[in-house]
Write a structure and sequence with these properties.
Layout lengths: L10 E4 L3 H11 L4 E5 L2 H5 L2 H11 L3 E5 L8 H13 L4 E6 L1 H16 L8 E2 L9 E5 L11 E6 L4 E6 L7 E4 L9 H20 L5 H23 L4 H21 L3 H13 L3 H30 L9 H18 L16 H8 L14 H10 L2
Parallel strand pairs: 1-9, 2-3, 2-4, 4-6, 5-8, 6-9
Antiparallel strand pairs: 7-8
Helix pairs in contact: 4-5, 6-7, 6-8, 6-10, 7-8, 9-10, 9-12, 10-11, 12-13
Pfam families: ADH_Fe_C, Fe-ADH
Keywords: NAD, Oxidoreductase
Enzyme class: oxidoreductase
């Protein structure tokens, strides 16, 4: 086993009511002027105002950038950075799911390192830590509030850039399930399947280690037990809290073991057609694991066990098949579209999508490396 380094924010708050504690922690850190990075929806429903009140009670001033796109863009980063500089902010608070977190990371990184966000595409390209960032999560899925991954759409090239950099790790992550209670069913399902994808890809990754394995398997169990309930009844706070912990565990796993072809391919679909990331992952997940099963069937059998299946009497390939069937059933039960055809993906784009997927840093730790033709075949199977 190669040596491993484990990345995680230095402080992580999880559980009902921890949002109040977070504002107090920011004050203790000496932070005084925050740029809140969020989206229009969270601003319109009053969640942003709630956070601003908590900050004001701790004598922390704030201004708001709510232009974050569901697939955050290079333009979003530029706009947020301009606002940050205009108000002389000393920290960034991201409020939302993966989109505001990723946008905020881009802003905070460029604020201290200069240049443009595209200069930092790849692994550890920055020289200095970003501005202090506090990530307040409102979804249970992306784990972007605690990772060193930042995904930004380059509008000029129609691709998603993967910025994997220890300097984009927030200093504080906040997962208060009360902020997740209002999430609509579709978003609950998509972000929950994103978390499942993180856990599974980390578990079969070529960079997996005993710490990431433990996190991944526990995440899979909690998602298998709670996602259906969280989707069926958004006010079920036990299911919401379980999903908050599960997505955090999955984040710990992939933040350190990285991912695989599901994400490498989903990033292309998101960048090219502007599709929801979690849905792309959910559709691709069983197809990529069918491809992977030739080299990691025993690991997929472990995942079947974590999902609550009795596979003792099955051999490894049968156990892997049972795992893939369970993934498909969970996706179907929470209302994920059956295939890429439903997402208006076009077969004539497969060549371009596959070429870009093979360049995505997430694919480098897939348990088996694929040819261009094999990636195209997986896209075709997922239609």
């Amino acid at each position: 086993m190669a040596a491993s380094t484990f990345f995680i924010p230095s402080v992580n708050m999880i559980g009902s009511g921890c949002l109040d504690e977070a504002a107090n922690t920011m004050k203790q850190q000496g932070l005084r002027h925050a740029l809140i990075v969020t989206d229009k929806v969270l601003n319109n429903i009053g969640v942003v105002a709630q956070v601003q009140r908590l900050l004001a009670a701790q004598q922390i001033e704030s201004c708001v950038y709510d232009g974050t796109h569901p697939n955050p863009t290079t333009l979003n980063v530029k706009q947020g950075l301009a606002l940050l500089q205009e108000h002389h902010c000393d920290c960034v608070v991201s409020l939302g799911g993966g989109s505001p977190h990723d946008c905020a990371k881009g802003i905070a990184l460029v604020a201290t390192n200069g240049g443009e966000i595209k200069d930092y595409e790849g692994v550890d390209r920055s020289a200095k830590p970003q501005l202090p960032m506090i990530a307040i999560n409102t979804t249970a899925g992306t784990a972007s509030e605690m990772t060193r991954f930042c995904i930004i759409t380059d509008e000029a090239r129609h691709i998603k850039m993967a910025i994997v950099d220890k300097h984009v790790t927030p200093i504080l992550s906040v997962n208060d399930p009360h902020l997740m209670a209002g999430m609509p069913k579709g978003l609950t399902a998509a972000t929950g399947m994103d978390a499942l994808t993180h856990a599974i890809e980390a578990y079969v990754s070529s960079a997996a280690n005993p710490i990431t394995d433990a996190c991944a398997l526990k995440a899979v169990t909690m998602i298998a037990e709670s996602l259906r309930d969280a989707v069926a009844d958004g006010g079920n706070m036990q299911a919401r809290e379980n999903m908050a912990y599960a997505q955090f565990l999955a984040g710990m796993a992939f933040n350190n073991a990285s991912l695989g072809y599901v994400h490498a391919m989903a990033h292309q679909l998101g960048g090219f057609y502007d599709l929801p990331h979690g849905v792309c992952n959910a559709v691709l997940l069983p197809h990529v694991q069918e491809f992977n099963a030739r080299v990691c069937a025993p690991r997929l059998k472990d995942i079947a066990v974590a999902m609550g299946l009795d596979v003792k009497h099955l051999n490894d390939p049968q156990g892997a098949a049972a795992c893939i069937a369970a993934i498909r059933l969970l996706a179907k039960d929470v209302g994920i579209p059956a295939g890429l055809l439903d997402l208006k993906v076009k077969e004539q784009d497969f060549d371009t999508l596959a070429a870009n997927a093979l360049k995505d840093a997430c694919g480098f730790t897939n348990p088996i490396q694929a040819t261009h033709e094999q990636i195209v075949a997986i896209f075709r199977a997922a239609m």
